[in-house]
Prior knowledge:
Number of strands: 12
Radius of gyration: 49 Å
Shape: rod-shaped
Mean pLDDT: 78
Amino acid sequence: METRKNKNNLLAGLAGLLGVIVIVSLIGLYAARPEPLIIQGEVEAKEYRVSGKIPGRINNIFAEEGSTVAKGDTLALIFSPELNAKLDQAMAARDAAQAQNRKAIKGARPEQIMGAFEMWQKAEVGADIASKSYERVQRLFDKGVIPAQKRDEAEAQHKAAAATAKAAKSQYEMAMNGAEKEDREAALALVNRANGAIKEVESYLDETCIVAPSSGEVSEIFPEEGDLVGTGAPIMSITDLSQMWFTFSVREDLLRGLTAGTTVKVMIPALGEESFEAKVTFMKAMASYATWRSTKVSGGFDAKTFELRAVPVAPIKGLRPGMSVIIKTELN
């Protein structure tokens, strides 16, 4: 009886030992199983930085942070009195140039033409009298009545009167013909220059109205109404929620299976446990000074980090920029 009892105890001990061995083996197998590697990234979206081309004061802001705007919507108005003053100056310069151009096209006034004609006729009369006087003096000189000096004086007066008449005729013809071709072209060029200056100022005035370059959500507004802004100063940011992607920083020894065109499953903690498909579209080595990591201590190599981008295969409801994204992969 005692022997049977000892035998049963031995069998029970062996069974317990066997159970312990099995449990330890299962724990070892589970512990040896490679755990999934978590690659964490972030949701990014296309962002537009809205800026003004001209300096001025923010007169009105028609959007709020978080509001949705459409492309072409007016976002803000900039008040710039300096531009209004420049426009007045440019318009005044154009008026003066147009007046000069009309004068060049019209030519001399009728009174000026009549005065030039009268001067020409007067000079012709003087030239005719001088010519007749010279002829009489020449006949008297030929007869020996007067000396040569008198004849020379009469000849000089005759030539001077003829030259005066010729000059008066030229003045009359110039008054009749109006301004020279070059003068008219120069006057027209002044008009075109003034028109160009006006268009330039008007184009700047158009920039006082800040419009949305794309549809999206206003993510940030920088100035307040009444603030002064300089040229190119950012006024607000617009995020296009229709263009979102995932960005990951992946060490190169973990890139196996992650190539451009590969479809991966990602999890977005903010949206629950559901997984989504994303397609890898871009890979690029990041700057060495920021991502280089030595692994030679463990007999490996110097690992670099790559920027990896992926886009959702299908739209994801509730996805927002800044959310965390996770890729789970097995280490070999």
